[in-house]
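Feature request, filed as a ticket because there's no other form

It would be nice if the structure record came with a short human-readable summary line next to the tokens. Right now we just get the raw output. Example of a typical job, pasted below so the devs can see what we mean:
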Amino acid sequence: MPAEAIQGLGLDVRPPDRRDHDNPKSLGCGYLSNDPEYGLTIAARPHTLDEVKSDDRFNILRETEICGRRALVSDFRGGSACTVSVAIEPGILEFMIGYSELEDFTTVDAACDQATKVATTLAPYFPDHL
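Raw output as currently delivered:
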């Protein structure tokens, strides 16, 4: 993602914090915003939207489309973060923002609105394939 697009969202443009995991496998980066204050994780995962739908960790709030791609907006792990999962073959690109009474986003709706805004703003820079 170009630094200009990241900065346009009010995110810190310093090199992102890598957040790669082996179980489940994902390649991700973390960004911070100061106004409002929140953390954002963007991760490429080898899962399909159908797998996200059937995963008990996700409470699917709605199905949508972002820049012509199928997407799911979900409450993750029963009330800790909003996840926007965008279908990009062969997996998904995931945008996750946490929420709690101690954070600037106190509700799942507020976190999901921001995660959807971020995904939509960055959509022109999505790769054709992961």
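Something like this underneath would help us a lot:
The chain has one domain: 3-103.
The CA atoms of residues 37 and 104 lie 6 Å apart.
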